[in-house]
Design goal:
By secondary structure, this protein is of the alpha/beta class. It has 29 helices and 23 strands. It is flat. The chain binds phosphoenolpyruvate and magnesium ion (MG).
Length: about 750
């Protein structure tokens, strides 16, 4: 049967009769989506209802998407194409909605499969009521007539929904419904920080005062001093094993990360005092919790920030001791099967908890790039949440978190679990044997190089298995951030040499220290800045502390022996700054030469282009540098004046903003005309939608997280250079963001 939208407008009476037959608003909406989907022969029809109080749209009925999403999927006004249709009060019709940068598929409800998209706002005058959406697998499925038909339906629906809502409000006033205000919602939408899926029960870690350590339910009551001593011994052994494993597997960042635990454990005032209290008759678990809380109080009221930071270590230790005390199947004492819910975590906390098998993380606050990056490297999902959401999650419960979309399912249903098991299986399959080709080429044979962004040494394995052609960006700050002091030149040399050795002759680009902004060194916290992103960050820090800078440069130069290595300076704002930094590198070479220490004499020296001032000076810089890499993460932040960690302005953080596109093209063409190597190492390099533009702008070298190499290789293979150049030209000519979005959504990847 063909589409019957014309008849449908005549058949609107059908909706009224549906309403009469329905027992509730939801019942009516569900019948309505079935009828509309049937008339339009659309695979999906959904209705979202808008709540003006929290400015959220909630999916209330669907035909075609997973029914588990009903009542759970929520969108902010303006979020995704659906939210946009309501915000701007206009229909949105996309032949290939999936390719529109504003499209945000909701994981777990199979939305990604549907190409054609049509959303029509449901409104009463100027009042926003909801959105009616149809989707289909066949691209360009909906036409102008469908749009008209859907608008007519939406107008009818508006009246019914509004009346039904009024009735409901009336009923509520007449007979107050006994609602449990403490009842947790079934799903929370947070902000995605690190992808993947994790499942487990909550373990809450709240820092500082008021975040006391709680006695969990269900512990045996009859534990003795003997049980405590056994738990103590077991804990010590586990910590030593963990420390050994961390030293081996995460040697760049994790040396001695459990030393504080071991020291506290050996402290007579701690374990000795617990034993004494048990001997004096206190129940073992209670004695332990009381003493952990006494220590938490002492640590968190200390003026010494380093001691304050140990509060998590204490709780972690308490948790392990309790688990061991309880024995049974919890005897591993770690966080297997547990999701950490916390108000604040340091990168080192994440590393410790991940080493102890925490399944995933839910943390209050904005997405600080380093915590997110560490979680991604450790393959642990992470979602950021607001303080009110943290309160809900503080009650013990089973959770499933989706780090790609930011969803947290509380007491997930069988259906949700089943959907996600499937997703997880597909991801694991891809990672164990990624079918990446050795060389990446466009549809018409142009060679493109795909390099890896490396944060921790443990990422190198993934870089090799995804056949990255080298390291395009080594973020060297992690050993500095996670340890509690600057690593020595020798320690750095060991780490950097491992990278060069592992990459066996492939090109490796080391970036000098990029701290400041949201990448904070805990042992440098005497520096309080009002605007850290505009402050002592990256190369500015290095140039102020030339001794630390020189140590790092010497370590890079020495590690480069026998390799193909390059050194790159972050956040360069002027030619003067580059020359000053390069002079330090040249002095280091002279010094090593004079001391007869071997180093890589062919080390190339380049810059990251991530500031508008560098774009303006790009001709002048191109004369001096050996190479340049565009850091779009920061370039977007600084060009558009949008804090990359501030959720409130995240909608303005647009990689396809016309100014960003023109800046990228300008840098690429200047570099290419000076025959200087140019690449992109910001997140734009892993966005398939932006690939045609980048290729057309003259970028043929990309550096991205190794796990994304396969996906990007596939995106590149679908594009011909002819089409890429044509598309890029159109995008560069566009003045408005919406014009660029239009062009992106009309991409046709077929060669
Ligand atoms: C960038 O700014 O694009 C970049 C790659 O650097 P980072 O994300 O580490 O600031
Ligand atoms: Mg940057």
């Amino acid at each position: 049967m063909g589409k019957a939208n014309v008849n449908m407008i005549c058949d609107i009476a059908e909706l009224s009769s549906l309403f009469e037959k329905s027992s509730s608003l939801d019942d009516f909406l569900q019948s309505a989506v079935s009828v509309v989907a049937w008339h339009m022969q659309a695979a999906v029809c959904s209705i979202y209802i808008y709540d003006d109080k929290d400015r959220m749209l909630t999916l209330r009925a669907t035909q075609g998407l997973s029914p588990i999403a009903v009542g759970k999927v929520q969108l902010r006004l303006g979020q995704g194409l659906t939210g946009l249709a309501l915000k701007e009060m206009r229909p949105i019709r996309e032949g290939r909605g999936v390719q529109n940068p504003r499209f945000q598929p909701v994981r777990g409800i199979n939305e990604e499969r549907y190409e054609a998209f049509l959303a029509v706002p449901i409104r009463r005058g100027l009042t926003r009521v909801g959105v009616l959406v149809v989707q289909d697998t066949q691209p360009d499925y909906f036409d102008e007539k469908d749009e008209q038909a859907l608008k007519a339906i939406a107008a009818q629906l508006a009246t019914v929904i509004e009346n039904a809502n009024l009735l409901l409000t009336l009923h509520r006033q007449e007979e107050p419904v006994k609602t449990d205000t403490r009842a947790a919602p079934k799903m929370i939408k947070g902000r995605p920080a690190s992808g993947g899926v994790a499942q487990g029960r909550t373990t809450v870690l709240i820092s500082g005062h008021g975040g006391s350590f709680q006695l969990p339910d269900g512990l045996p009551k009859n534990l003795t001093v003997h049980d405590f001593d056994r738990a103590l011994e077991q804990t010590e052994q586990q910590l030593k094993d963990l420390q050994r494993r961390a030293d081996e597997e995460l040697s760049d960042v994790a040396q001695l990360i459990f030393s504080a635990h071991l020291l506290i454990l050996a402290d007579e005032e701690f374990s000795g005092e617990i034993r004494r209290r048990i001997e004096a008759g206190a129940p073992a678990a209670e004695a332990l919790v009381t003493l952990v809380n006494t220590f938490i109080e002492i640590f968190s009221s200390s003026p010494n920030q380093r001691l304050q930071e140990k509060v998590h270590d204490l709780k972690d230790l308490g948790h392990r001791l309790l688990e061991n005390l309880a024995g049974g199947d919890r005897e591993r004492g770690d966080y297997s099967g547990q999701i950490i819910v916390a108000d604040m975590l340091l990168p080192s906390d994440i590393l410790k908890l991940a080493t102890e098998n925490a399944e995933g993380f839910i943390v209050q606050g904005g997405v600080t790039s380093h915590n997110a990056i560490i979680c991604r490297s450790l393959q642990k999902p992470m979602v950021m949440i607001d303080p009110q959401q943290l309160e809900i999650l503080c009650n013990p419960c089973e959770l499933l978190i989706d780090g790609d979309q930011g969803y947290i399912f509380i007491q997930p249903s069988e259906e949700v679990l089943k959907d996600y098991v499937e997703l997880r299986r597909a991801a694991v399959e891809l990672e164990t044997a990624p079918p990446v080709k050795e060389e990446t080429r466009t549809a018409d044979g142009m060679r493109v190089q795909l390099f890896a962004n490396i944060n921790l040494l443990s990422d190198l394995k993934m870089a090799l298995s995804f056949r990255a052609e080298g390291v395009g960006l080594y973020r060297s700050e992690f050993p500095f951030i996670i340890r509690n002091a600057f690593p020595s030149e020798e320690e750095q040399y060991q780490v950097y040499s491992r990278i060069v050795e592992t990459m066996g002759g492939r090109e490796v680009t080391f970036r000098t220290l990029d701290i400041g902004g949201d990448k904070v060194l805990s042992y440098q916290n005497e520096i309080e800045e009002a605007n850290p992103f505009l402050g002592l960050r990256a190369i500015r820090f290095s140039l102020l502390h030339k001794d630390i800078f020189a140590e790092q440069l010497r370590a890079f130069l020495r590690a480069g022996v026998g390799g193909n290595t390059r050194i790159m300076f972050p956040l360069i704002s002027s030619l003067d700054e580059f020359i000053e930094a390069r002079d330090v590198a040249r002095d280091c070479m002279k010094e090593l030469e004079a001391r007869g220490v071997p180093y890589n004499r062919d080390t190339k020296i380049g810059i990251m282009v991530e500031l508008p001032s560098a774009v303006e000076l790009i001709e002048d810089l191109a004369h001096e540098v050996d190479f340049m890499s565009i850091g779009t993460n920061d370039l977007i932040q600084y060009m558009l004046a949008v804090d990359r960690t501030n959720e409130m302005v995240s909608k303005l953080y647009l990689s396809h903003h016309p100014a960003i596109l023109r800046a990228i093209e300008r840098v690429a063409s200047v570099a290419n005309s000076h025959r200087k190597d140019v690449s992109i190492c910001g997140d734009i390099a892993m966005d398939p939608k932006m690939i045609p533009f980048l290729l057309g702008a003259g970028i043929t070298k990309l550096s991205l997280p190794p796990r994304r190499v396969y996906e990007i290789q596939q995106a590149i293979e679908k594009v011909s250079m002819e089409k890429a150049v044509y598309t890029t030209r159109r995008m560069l000519a566009a003045s408005r963001i919406s014009d660029v979005e239009q062009i992106i959504s009309s991409y046709n990847f077929a060669p």
